[in-house]
Amino acid sequence: MPYDMIIQGGTVVTASDRFVADIGIKGERVETIAPNLPADGSQVIDAKGCYVLPGAIDVHSHLDMPFGGTSTADDFESGTISAACGGTTTVVDFAIQFKGQSPRQGLDAWHKKAEGKACVDYGFHLILTELPEGSESQLDGLVDEGVSSFKVFMAYPGVFMLDDASIFRLLRKTREVGALTTIHCENGGAIDVLVKLAREAGERAPKYHALTRPARAEAEATARAIALAEIAKAPIYVVHLSAAEALDQVRVARDRGLAAYAETCPQYLFLSTRNYEEPGFEGSKYVMSPPLREPGNEEFLWKGLRTDELQVVSTDHCSFCMNQKALGKDDFSKIPNGAPGLETRLYLLHDGGVRAGRISLERMVDLTATKPAKMFGLYPKKGTLSVGSDADLVVWDPEKKFLITNKALHSKADYTPYEGRAVTGAPRTVLQRGQVIVKDNSFVGKIGGGRFLRRGTFKSP
Ligand code: DUC
Ligand code: ZN
Ligand code: ZN
Protein backbone atom coordinates (compact mmCIF):
# COMPACT_ATOMS: atom_id res chain seq x y z
CA MET A 1 0.00 0.00 0.00
CA PRO A 2 1.87 3.11 -1.20
CA TYR A 3 -0.15 5.58 0.90
CA ASP A 4 -1.94 5.45 4.24
CA MET A 5 -4.47 7.95 3.00
CA ILE A 6 -5.44 9.64 -0.26
CA ILE A 7 -7.32 12.93 -0.47
CA GLN A 8 -8.97 12.31 -3.80
CA GLY A 9 -9.99 14.65 -6.60
CA GLY A 10 -10.01 17.98 -4.77
CA THR A 11 -8.74 21.32 -6.01
CA VAL A 12 -5.43 21.81 -4.23
CA VAL A 13 -4.88 25.47 -3.38
CA THR A 14 -1.60 27.02 -2.32
CA ALA A 15 -0.49 30.65 -2.04
CA SER A 16 0.45 30.58 -5.72
CA ASP A 17 -1.46 27.78 -7.48
CA ARG A 18 -4.71 25.90 -7.78
CA PHE A 19 -5.02 22.57 -9.59
CA VAL A 20 -6.98 19.33 -9.38
CA ALA A 21 -4.93 16.47 -7.92
CA ASP A 22 -4.87 13.70 -5.35
CA ILE A 23 -2.74 14.02 -2.25
CA GLY A 24 -1.05 10.80 -1.09
CA ILE A 25 -0.18 10.77 2.62
CA LYS A 26 2.26 8.40 4.24
CA GLY A 27 2.56 8.55 8.01
CA GLU A 28 2.48 12.21 9.00
CA ARG A 29 3.64 13.72 5.72
CA VAL A 30 2.53 14.49 2.20
CA GLU A 31 4.20 11.86 0.01
CA THR A 32 2.85 12.67 -3.46
CA ILE A 33 0.67 15.28 -5.14
CA ALA A 34 -0.48 14.03 -8.55
CA PRO A 35 -3.61 13.06 -10.45
CA ASN A 36 -5.15 9.58 -10.16
CA LEU A 37 -3.06 8.03 -7.40
CA PRO A 38 -3.65 4.26 -7.01
CA ALA A 39 -5.73 3.59 -3.90
CA ASP A 40 -4.58 -0.02 -3.35
CA GLY A 41 -6.23 -0.31 0.07
CA SER A 42 -5.40 3.21 1.29
CA GLN A 43 -8.06 5.10 3.20
CA VAL A 44 -9.68 7.48 0.71
CA ILE A 45 -11.28 10.84 1.47
CA ASP A 46 -13.37 12.09 -1.44
CA ALA A 47 -12.64 15.78 -1.96
CA LYS A 48 -14.37 16.25 -5.33
CA GLY A 49 -15.98 19.67 -5.54
CA CYS A 50 -13.93 20.86 -2.57
CA TYR A 51 -10.78 22.88 -2.12
CA VAL A 52 -7.88 21.24 -0.33
CA LEU A 53 -6.13 23.96 1.67
CA PRO A 54 -3.03 23.82 3.85
CA GLY A 55 -4.04 23.76 7.52
CA ALA A 56 -4.29 27.38 8.61
CA ILE A 57 -1.85 28.91 11.08
CA ASP A 58 -2.87 31.47 13.66
CA VAL A 59 0.15 33.32 15.02
CA HIS A 60 -1.84 35.38 17.52
CA SER A 61 -3.78 33.64 20.27
CA HIS A 62 -4.06 34.11 24.03
CA LEU A 63 -5.03 30.83 25.66
CA ASP A 64 -5.19 30.32 29.42
CA MET A 65 -4.07 33.91 29.91
CA PRO A 66 -4.64 35.98 33.04
CA PHE A 67 -5.92 39.45 32.18
CA GLY A 68 -7.65 42.23 34.08
CA GLY A 69 -8.27 40.20 37.26
CA THR A 70 -9.61 37.16 35.46
CA SER A 71 -8.42 34.52 33.01
CA THR A 72 -9.42 33.78 29.44
CA ALA A 73 -12.40 31.45 28.99
CA ASP A 74 -10.43 29.19 26.67
CA ASP A 75 -7.51 27.12 27.80
CA PHE A 76 -5.31 25.12 25.44
CA GLU A 77 -7.88 22.34 25.16
CA SER A 78 -11.02 24.29 24.29
CA GLY A 79 -9.12 26.96 22.35
CA THR A 80 -7.35 24.51 20.08
CA ILE A 81 -10.47 22.39 19.54
CA SER A 82 -12.16 25.59 18.45
CA ALA A 83 -9.20 26.40 16.18
CA ALA A 84 -9.27 22.94 14.60
CA CYS A 85 -13.00 23.08 13.91
CA GLY A 86 -12.42 26.29 11.98
CA GLY A 87 -9.58 24.81 9.90
CA THR A 88 -6.61 26.06 11.93
CA THR A 89 -4.07 23.33 12.65
CA THR A 90 -1.25 25.40 14.17
CA VAL A 91 -1.37 28.17 16.75
CA VAL A 92 1.48 30.32 18.00
CA ASP A 93 0.37 31.52 21.42
CA PHE A 94 1.81 34.28 23.59
CA ALA A 95 3.63 33.02 26.68
CA ILE A 96 4.19 35.79 29.24
CA GLN A 97 7.21 36.68 31.32
CA PHE A 98 5.51 38.61 34.12
CA LYS A 99 7.43 41.20 36.10
CA GLY A 100 9.91 39.58 38.48
CA GLN A 101 10.13 36.42 36.39
CA SER A 102 12.95 35.32 34.12
CA PRO A 103 12.08 34.70 30.46
CA ARG A 104 12.60 31.01 31.12
CA GLN A 105 10.04 30.97 33.97
CA GLY A 106 7.48 32.62 31.71
CA LEU A 107 8.05 30.10 28.99
CA ASP A 108 8.03 27.08 31.32
CA ALA A 109 4.66 28.17 32.70
CA TRP A 110 3.17 28.17 29.19
CA HIS A 111 4.64 24.78 28.36
CA LYS A 112 2.79 23.43 31.40
CA LYS A 113 -0.47 25.02 30.30
CA ALA A 114 -0.27 23.46 26.83
CA GLU A 115 1.20 20.00 27.44
CA GLY A 116 -1.37 17.24 27.40
CA LYS A 117 -4.11 19.71 26.45
CA ALA A 118 -3.31 21.30 23.09
CA CYS A 119 -5.23 19.57 20.32
CA VAL A 120 -3.35 21.17 17.41
CA ASP A 121 0.36 21.79 16.96
CA TYR A 122 1.59 24.89 18.75
CA GLY A 123 4.49 27.21 19.28
CA PHE A 124 5.12 30.17 21.55
CA HIS A 125 6.19 33.75 21.21
CA LEU A 126 7.36 35.18 24.52
CA ILE A 127 5.93 38.46 25.85
CA LEU A 128 8.58 40.40 27.73
CA THR A 129 7.26 42.80 30.37
CA GLU A 130 10.75 43.74 31.51
CA LEU A 131 14.22 43.39 30.06
CA PRO A 132 16.80 44.67 32.55
CA GLU A 133 20.02 45.92 30.99
CA GLY A 134 22.42 43.01 30.55
CA SER A 135 19.69 40.35 30.64
CA GLU A 136 19.40 40.09 26.87
CA SER A 137 21.65 37.01 26.74
CA GLN A 138 18.88 35.06 28.51
CA LEU A 139 17.04 35.10 25.21
CA ASP A 140 19.76 33.17 23.31
CA GLY A 141 18.78 29.79 24.72
CA LEU A 142 15.10 30.37 23.98
CA VAL A 143 15.75 30.97 20.30
CA ASP A 144 17.75 27.72 20.19
CA GLU A 145 14.69 25.97 21.68
CA GLY A 146 12.47 27.23 18.89
CA VAL A 147 10.99 30.32 20.52
CA SER A 148 12.18 32.67 17.82
CA SER A 149 9.84 35.62 18.31
CA PHE A 150 9.05 37.97 21.16
CA LYS A 151 6.28 40.42 21.87
CA VAL A 152 6.37 43.76 23.59
CA PHE A 153 3.63 46.24 24.43
CA MET A 154 3.70 49.99 23.97
CA ALA A 155 0.36 50.05 25.83
CA TYR A 156 -0.88 49.03 29.32
CA PRO A 157 1.58 51.08 31.45
CA GLY A 158 2.45 49.36 34.73
CA VAL A 159 1.21 45.99 33.51
CA PHE A 160 2.66 44.93 30.16
CA MET A 161 4.22 48.11 28.74
CA LEU A 162 7.95 48.12 28.05
CA ASP A 163 9.90 51.38 27.79
CA ASP A 164 11.46 52.45 24.49
CA ALA A 165 15.03 51.78 25.65
CA SER A 166 14.19 48.16 26.54
CA ILE A 167 12.31 47.72 23.25
CA PHE A 168 15.35 49.06 21.42
CA ARG A 169 17.69 46.68 23.23
CA LEU A 170 15.36 43.79 22.38
CA LEU A 171 15.35 44.81 18.70
CA ARG A 172 19.15 44.80 18.63
CA LYS A 173 19.20 41.40 20.27
CA THR A 174 16.63 39.88 17.93
CA ARG A 175 18.62 41.10 14.97
CA GLU A 176 21.72 39.38 16.36
CA VAL A 177 20.02 36.02 16.94
CA GLY A 178 17.68 35.98 13.93
CA ALA A 179 14.48 36.38 15.93
CA LEU A 180 11.48 38.62 15.22
CA THR A 181 10.09 41.31 17.53
CA THR A 182 6.32 41.56 17.41
CA ILE A 183 4.81 44.66 18.90
CA HIS A 184 1.50 46.02 20.20
CA CYS A 185 1.46 49.60 18.98
CA GLU A 186 -0.66 52.01 21.02
CA ASN A 187 0.62 54.99 22.99
CA GLY A 188 -0.19 53.69 26.48
CA GLY A 189 0.71 56.90 28.29
CA ALA A 190 -1.65 59.12 26.31
CA ILE A 191 -4.41 56.50 26.45
CA ASP A 192 -4.18 56.24 30.24
CA VAL A 193 -4.65 60.02 30.54
CA LEU A 194 -7.72 59.88 28.27
CA VAL A 195 -9.16 56.97 30.27
CA LYS A 196 -8.70 58.85 33.55
CA LEU A 197 -10.37 61.97 32.15
CA ALA A 198 -13.32 59.95 30.80
CA ARG A 199 -13.85 58.19 34.12
CA GLU A 200 -13.71 61.48 36.02
CA ALA A 201 -16.34 62.86 33.65
CA GLY A 202 -18.60 59.93 34.52
CA GLU A 203 -18.28 58.32 31.09
CA ARG A 204 -18.44 54.64 31.98
CA ALA A 205 -20.15 52.80 29.05
CA PRO A 206 -18.22 50.32 26.82
CA LYS A 207 -18.07 52.76 23.90
CA TYR A 208 -15.65 54.94 25.88
CA HIS A 209 -13.09 52.17 25.52
CA ALA A 210 -12.86 53.07 21.83
CA LEU A 211 -13.17 56.80 22.38
CA THR A 212 -10.16 56.80 24.71
CA ARG A 213 -7.96 54.77 22.33
CA PRO A 214 -7.82 56.94 19.20
CA ALA A 215 -6.40 55.75 15.90
CA ARG A 216 -3.75 58.48 16.20
CA ALA A 217 -2.39 56.78 19.32
CA GLU A 218 -1.98 53.60 17.29
CA ALA A 219 -0.39 55.42 14.35
CA GLU A 220 2.06 57.28 16.60
CA ALA A 221 3.21 54.09 18.31
CA THR A 222 3.46 52.27 14.98
CA ALA A 223 5.73 54.99 13.58
CA ARG A 224 7.85 54.97 16.77
CA ALA A 225 8.19 51.17 16.73
CA ILE A 226 9.27 51.20 13.09
CA ALA A 227 11.78 53.98 13.76
CA LEU A 228 13.30 52.00 16.64
CA ALA A 229 13.54 48.93 14.40
CA GLU A 230 15.15 50.98 11.64
CA ILE A 231 17.81 52.32 13.99
CA ALA A 232 18.42 48.79 15.31
CA LYS A 233 18.48 47.44 11.73
CA ALA A 234 16.02 44.77 12.83
CA PRO A 235 12.82 43.45 11.28
CA ILE A 236 9.58 44.28 13.06
CA TYR A 237 6.08 42.79 12.99
CA VAL A 238 3.14 44.94 14.07
CA VAL A 239 0.40 42.84 15.63
CA HIS A 240 -3.34 43.44 15.28
CA LEU A 241 -3.04 46.57 13.14
CA SER A 242 -6.48 48.16 13.15
CA ALA A 243 -6.36 51.73 11.86
CA ALA A 244 -5.83 53.03 8.33
CA GLU A 245 -3.48 55.70 9.60
CA ALA A 246 -1.29 53.08 11.30
CA LEU A 247 -1.22 51.20 8.00
CA ASP A 248 0.02 54.40 6.34
CA GLN A 249 3.08 54.21 8.59
CA VAL A 250 3.81 50.62 7.57
CA ARG A 251 3.36 51.43 3.89
CA VAL A 252 5.75 54.38 4.04
CA ALA A 253 8.31 52.23 5.84
CA ARG A 254 8.05 49.42 3.31
CA ASP A 255 8.31 51.87 0.44
CA ARG A 256 11.58 52.94 2.02
CA GLY A 257 12.72 49.33 1.94
CA LEU A 258 12.46 48.60 5.66
CA ALA A 259 11.63 45.14 7.00
CA ALA A 260 8.35 46.32 8.54
CA TYR A 261 5.54 43.77 8.50
CA ALA A 262 2.04 43.74 9.91
CA GLU A 263 -1.03 41.63 10.51
CA THR A 264 -4.66 42.59 10.88
CA CYS A 265 -7.53 40.56 12.32
CA PRO A 266 -11.09 39.73 11.16
CA GLN A 267 -12.68 41.97 13.79
CA TYR A 268 -11.15 45.03 12.09
CA LEU A 269 -12.37 43.83 8.70
CA PHE A 270 -15.94 42.87 9.65
CA LEU A 271 -16.91 44.98 12.69
CA SER A 272 -16.80 48.70 13.50
CA THR A 273 -17.46 51.30 16.21
CA ARG A 274 -21.17 50.81 15.44
CA ASN A 275 -20.99 47.59 17.44
CA TYR A 276 -20.30 49.61 20.61
CA GLU A 277 -23.77 51.13 20.23
CA GLU A 278 -25.55 47.80 20.73
CA PRO A 279 -28.11 47.99 23.59
CA GLY A 280 -27.37 47.48 27.26
CA PHE A 281 -23.93 46.07 28.00
CA GLU A 282 -23.67 44.27 24.63
CA GLY A 283 -20.97 46.70 23.50
CA SER A 284 -18.59 45.05 25.98
CA LYS A 285 -18.37 42.05 23.64
CA TYR A 286 -16.20 44.19 21.39
CA VAL A 287 -13.94 45.70 24.02
CA MET A 288 -10.51 44.75 22.78
CA SER A 289 -7.30 46.62 22.13
CA PRO A 290 -6.84 48.23 19.72
CA PRO A 291 -10.58 48.93 19.57
CA LEU A 292 -12.86 48.63 16.57
CA ARG A 293 -12.58 51.57 14.21
CA GLU A 294 -15.00 53.83 12.33
CA PRO A 295 -17.00 52.31 9.45
CA GLY A 296 -15.04 52.72 6.21
CA ASN A 297 -11.68 52.07 7.88
CA GLU A 298 -11.91 48.40 6.86
CA GLU A 299 -11.63 49.21 3.15
CA PHE A 300 -8.07 50.47 3.70
CA LEU A 301 -7.22 47.21 5.45
CA TRP A 302 -8.66 45.12 2.60
CA LYS A 303 -6.58 47.12 0.16
CA GLY A 304 -3.54 46.53 2.36
CA LEU A 305 -4.22 42.80 2.28
CA ARG A 306 -4.41 42.82 -1.51
CA THR A 307 -1.25 44.85 -2.02
CA ASP A 308 0.93 43.09 0.59
CA GLU A 309 1.13 46.09 2.88
CA LEU A 310 -0.31 43.56 5.35
CA GLN A 311 1.08 40.04 5.26
CA VAL A 312 -1.05 38.09 7.73
CA VAL A 313 -4.59 37.77 9.06
CA SER A 314 -4.46 36.36 12.60
CA THR A 315 -7.17 36.48 15.25
CA ASP A 316 -5.91 37.84 18.62
CA HIS A 317 -8.27 35.25 20.11
CA CYS A 318 -8.63 36.34 23.75
CA SER A 319 -11.96 34.98 24.92
CA PHE A 320 -14.08 36.00 27.89
CA CYS A 321 -17.61 35.16 28.96
CA MET A 322 -20.17 37.87 29.60
CA ASN A 323 -19.95 37.40 33.38
CA GLN A 324 -16.25 38.22 33.07
CA LYS A 325 -16.97 41.24 30.88
CA ALA A 326 -19.34 42.31 33.68
CA LEU A 327 -16.28 43.17 35.81
CA GLY A 328 -16.55 46.44 33.92
CA LYS A 329 -20.33 46.87 34.15
CA ASP A 330 -19.93 50.29 35.75
CA ASP A 331 -16.54 51.19 34.32
CA PHE A 332 -15.37 50.46 30.77
CA SER A 333 -11.73 50.47 31.89
CA LYS A 334 -12.34 47.32 33.94
CA ILE A 335 -13.81 45.27 31.08
CA PRO A 336 -11.36 42.47 30.22
CA ASN A 337 -9.97 43.23 26.76
CA GLY A 338 -10.47 40.64 24.07
CA ALA A 339 -12.88 38.54 22.04
CA PRO A 340 -13.01 35.02 20.62
CA GLY A 341 -12.04 34.50 16.98
CA LEU A 342 -9.90 31.39 16.44
CA GLU A 343 -12.71 29.39 14.88
CA THR A 344 -14.38 31.99 12.67
CA ARG A 345 -11.36 33.35 10.75
CA LEU A 346 -11.58 31.17 7.62
CA TYR A 347 -15.39 31.28 7.46
CA LEU A 348 -15.26 35.07 7.44
CA LEU A 349 -12.32 35.45 5.07
CA HIS A 350 -13.69 32.96 2.58
CA ASP A 351 -17.20 34.38 2.58
CA GLY A 352 -16.52 38.09 3.12
CA GLY A 353 -13.12 38.17 1.42
CA VAL A 354 -12.91 35.60 -1.38
CA ARG A 355 -16.57 35.26 -2.32
CA ALA A 356 -17.05 39.01 -2.02
CA GLY A 357 -14.21 39.51 -4.53
CA ARG A 358 -11.92 41.36 -2.12
CA ILE A 359 -9.06 38.84 -2.13
CA SER A 360 -8.29 35.74 -4.17
CA LEU A 361 -8.47 32.26 -2.70
CA GLU A 362 -4.70 31.93 -3.14
CA ARG A 363 -4.22 35.16 -1.21
CA MET A 364 -6.43 33.81 1.59
CA VAL A 365 -4.09 30.82 1.84
CA ASP A 366 -1.08 33.12 1.76
CA LEU A 367 -2.42 35.34 4.55
CA THR A 368 -3.60 32.56 6.83
CA ALA A 369 -0.95 29.88 6.26
CA THR A 370 2.02 30.55 3.98
CA LYS A 371 3.19 34.00 5.04
CA PRO A 372 2.86 33.30 8.78
CA ALA A 373 4.74 30.01 8.30
CA LYS A 374 7.54 31.79 6.46
CA MET A 375 7.95 34.63 8.91
CA PHE A 376 7.66 32.54 12.05
CA GLY A 377 10.03 29.73 11.11
CA LEU A 378 7.55 27.00 10.23
CA TYR A 379 7.87 26.81 6.46
CA PRO A 380 7.67 24.45 4.54
CA LYS A 381 6.81 21.92 7.26
CA LYS A 382 3.67 24.00 7.79
CA GLY A 383 1.92 26.61 5.68
CA THR A 384 1.78 24.91 2.30
CA LEU A 385 0.96 21.63 0.60
CA SER A 386 4.12 20.22 -0.92
CA VAL A 387 5.92 16.91 -0.90
CA GLY A 388 7.44 16.42 2.56
CA SER A 389 5.20 18.94 4.32
CA ASP A 390 3.22 17.86 7.35
CA ALA A 391 -0.12 16.50 6.16
CA ASP A 392 -2.08 19.29 7.84
CA LEU A 393 -4.94 20.13 5.53
CA VAL A 394 -8.51 21.25 5.27
CA VAL A 395 -11.05 19.80 2.87
CA TRP A 396 -13.07 22.96 2.36
CA ASP A 397 -16.54 22.80 0.87
CA PRO A 398 -16.97 26.18 -0.87
CA GLU A 399 -20.75 25.79 -1.22
CA LYS A 400 -21.64 24.63 2.28
CA LYS A 401 -23.89 27.07 4.12
CA PHE A 402 -23.02 27.78 7.72
CA LEU A 403 -24.79 30.01 10.21
CA ILE A 404 -22.31 31.44 12.70
CA THR A 405 -23.83 31.14 16.15
CA ASN A 406 -22.08 30.59 19.42
CA LYS A 407 -23.97 27.30 19.74
CA ALA A 408 -22.36 25.97 16.56
CA LEU A 409 -18.84 26.95 17.68
CA HIS A 410 -16.52 25.29 20.18
CA SER A 411 -14.94 28.07 22.23
CA LYS A 412 -15.84 28.28 25.92
CA ALA A 413 -16.75 31.94 25.43
CA ASP A 414 -20.50 32.36 25.69
CA TYR A 415 -20.81 34.64 22.69
CA THR A 416 -19.35 35.20 19.24
CA PRO A 417 -19.01 38.73 17.82
CA TYR A 418 -20.47 37.34 14.57
CA GLU A 419 -23.70 35.81 15.96
CA GLY A 420 -26.28 35.26 13.22
CA ARG A 421 -23.94 35.88 10.27
CA ALA A 422 -24.69 33.44 7.45
CA VAL A 423 -21.64 32.37 5.45
CA THR A 424 -21.03 30.09 2.51
CA GLY A 425 -18.02 27.80 2.68
CA ALA A 426 -16.97 25.57 5.58
CA PRO A 427 -14.47 22.88 6.50
CA ARG A 428 -15.70 19.35 5.84
CA THR A 429 -12.67 17.45 7.14
CA VAL A 430 -9.48 18.65 8.87
CA LEU A 431 -6.27 16.63 9.10
CA GLN A 432 -3.27 17.09 11.33
CA ARG A 433 -0.14 15.16 10.40
CA GLY A 434 -2.22 12.63 8.47
CA GLN A 435 -4.90 12.07 11.13
CA VAL A 436 -8.49 13.24 10.79
CA ILE A 437 -9.10 15.62 13.71
CA VAL A 438 -12.34 17.28 12.57
CA LYS A 439 -15.25 15.79 10.73
CA ASP A 440 -18.42 17.72 9.96
CA ASN A 441 -17.90 20.34 12.67
CA SER A 442 -16.99 17.81 15.40
CA PHE A 443 -13.54 17.39 16.90
CA VAL A 444 -12.57 13.72 16.60
CA GLY A 445 -8.84 14.02 17.38
CA LYS A 446 -6.99 13.30 20.58
CA ILE A 447 -6.97 15.69 23.53
CA GLY A 448 -3.34 16.68 23.96
CA GLY A 449 -2.49 15.41 20.47
CA GLY A 450 -0.90 18.74 19.49
CA ARG A 451 2.88 18.93 19.45
CA PHE A 452 5.19 21.74 20.46
CA LEU A 453 6.91 23.21 17.40
CA ARG A 454 10.52 24.30 17.60
CA ARG A 455 10.41 27.15 15.14
CA GLY A 456 13.29 28.31 12.99
CA THR A 457 14.66 31.83 12.81
CA PHE A 458 12.99 34.75 11.03
CA LYS A 459 13.07 34.87 7.22
CA SER A 460 11.61 37.72 5.22
CA PRO A 461 8.50 36.42 3.47
N1 DUC B 1 -5.48 43.04 23.25
C1 DUC B 1 -6.61 42.44 23.65
O1 DUC B 1 -7.69 42.82 23.20
N2 DUC B 1 -6.53 41.44 24.54
C2 DUC B 1 -5.33 40.95 25.07
C3 DUC B 1 -4.16 41.76 24.83
C4 DUC B 1 -4.29 42.75 23.75
O2 DUC B 1 -3.33 43.30 23.32
ZN1 ZN C 1 -1.74 43.18 21.72
ZN1 ZN D 1 -3.04 39.88 21.47
Overview of the molecule:
The protein has 461 residues and is an alpha/beta fold. Helix 4 (164-177) links the parallel strand 11 (149-153) and strand 12. Strands 1, 2, 3, 4, 5, 16, 17, 18 and 19 form a 9-stranded mixed β-sheet that branches. It has helices at 76-85, 103-114, 138-144, 164-177, 188-200, 207-211, 215-232, 244-255, 266-270, 297-306, 322-325, 345-354, 361-375, and strands spanning 5-13, 18-26, 29-34, 43-46, 51-54, 56-61, 66-67, 70-71, 88-97, 121-128, 149-153, 180-184, 236-238, 260-264, 312-313, 393-404, 421-432, 435-439, 442-443. The chain has 13 helices and 19 strands. The mean pLDDT is 98. The radius of gyration is 21 Å and the shape is globular.
Outline the fold blueprint.
Blueprint: E1 5-13, E2 18-26, E3 29-34, E4 43-46, E5 51-54, E6 56-61, E7 66-67, E8 70-71, H1 76-85, E9 88-97, H2 103-114, E10 121-128, H3 138-144, E11 149-153, H4 164-177, E12 180-184, H5 188-200, H6 207-211, H7 215-232, E13 236-238, H8 244-255, E14 260-264, H9 266-270, H10 297-306, E15 312-313, H11 322-325, H12 345-354, H13 361-375, E16 393-404, E17 421-432, E18 435-439, E19 442-443
Parallel strand pairs: 1-4, 1-5, 6-9, 9-10, 10-11, 11-12, 12-13, 13-14, 14-15
Antiparallel strand pairs: 1-2, 2-3, 5-16, 7-8, 16-17, 17-18, 18-19
The site of one zinc ion has 3 residues, from loops.
Q: In short, what is this structure?
A:
The chain has 461 residues and is an alpha/beta fold. It is 29% helix and 24% strand.
Radius of gyration of CA atoms, rounded to a whole number: 21 Å
Alpha plus pi helix count: 13
* Structural class designation: alpha/beta
Give the overall silhouette: globular
Share in helix: 25-40%
Residue stretches low in confidence (pLDDT < 50, at least 5 long) are none
Beta fraction: 15-25%
Q: What compounds are bound to the protein? A: dihydropyrimidine-2,4(1H,3H)-dione, zinc ion
Distance between the termini: 38 Å
Largest sheet: 9 strands, mixed
- Which whole number gives the mean pLDDT? 98
**How many E-type strands?**
19
